[in-house]
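A favour, since you know our structure tokens better than I do. What I am after is a single protein written out in full by you. Could you add the entry underneath, on a fresh line?


***
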Amino acid sequence: MKPIRLPEPPGSPQSMGGLPDIFEGGVYGVIRRAVIIGNGFPASENQSIGLVRALGLSEKQTLYRVTRPTGGINEWLHWLPVSIHKKLYYIISRIYGYSQFLIARRGTKLAPLPRGNGVGIGLSSVLEADVKNIVKMAKETFEKDGPLLVVASGRDTISIASSIKRLASDNVFVVQIQHPRSHLDRFDLVITPQHDYYPLSPHAQEQVPRFLRKWITPHEPPNERVVLTVGALHQVDSAALRSEATAWHDEFAPLLKPLLVVNIGGPTRYCRYSTDLAKQLTASLHNVLTSCGSVRISFSRRTPEKISNMILKELGTHPKIYIWDGEEPNPHMGHLAWGDAFIVTADSVSMLSEACSTGKPVYVIGAEHCTWKFVDFHKKLRERGLVRPFTGLEDMSESWSYPPLSDTSEAASRVHKALAERGWRLRP
């Protein structure tokens, strides 16, 4: 088998490396720091953190977060733009009082307000995303520290990132991850998966009644501001895997080979399933256990309890199988480094993208439950030879490989190019 060459984290262009600032336009053209605008969802924030890491600025990043009111009636207002949601909640709260709208869905227990903005990513606190403060900081520190890189991901961050660009265009370079649907000129660069343009395909147009087509976005094909990826950005590259392999050596090295890793997500808007998929997965896993040395199973935050309970009941006592209990430390990166093959549920673009960045066998279960643009995503993975359907007939001792998916490093290279066109560069 040919050795797999994993994507390396990109550095600054070689032609720029090591030159004094004065030869590259002085400090004003050198980006030394980054601001990440998050939305509180790990899958979205991981994309921004991964890109900043690939650009060499992970030691100089600051995370801000756009937050929404939570609990009670707010669960019905998440479809609104975040700014309108906050204003509407403020008005309702003033009229009727807080307590009547913080009643939890179950019983009459009040839903607690978030204790800290950084809960969930290992930080004690994260700054609230405030446009005025970020713009002020970018302008006041420009002469001393140079331009500011702003990276945002997710629907709730669009208005914040675009406002920063509008108010401080001479001082910032703004990258929006995931398609903002319209007005791409609000950003310097947009990074989005190819399947976000699925609505423009003839096959998609046939599925939408003519009178509704004008409401389906995007309306135009990608322009020069758009960087297309196959999947999601993340933090997995050769350097990260080497580091995690060392960190998890004592736990994973003694395990019998091959090590099969199973990552289970949860149903989504475009990939709906229930315990039917759990039954299919457990039956198929039983069939391949004879060719496995060890099996490690992990659930995501989105996994419904009825699915995890069924898998625990069917597989939890098998001597070859270990099911992660959700307690820290999270072994996910250790799984990617030490796993010999992966089974991933079809609903998770992030988990599939990370697994496909290892160059190791990736099997997908549940793709038949997916619709709309997820169908296009899985088609592209299969066409590139990155994944195969999990049938339960596989011999896990037989390996196969492919050029690892390198969306993050390729996106980082496009950022370097776009900055150079503006006369700026990155200097970690």
About this structure: The first strand starts at residue 30 and ends at 31. Residues 12-25, 103-124 have pLDDT under 50 and may be disordered. The two ends are 36 Å apart (CA to CA).
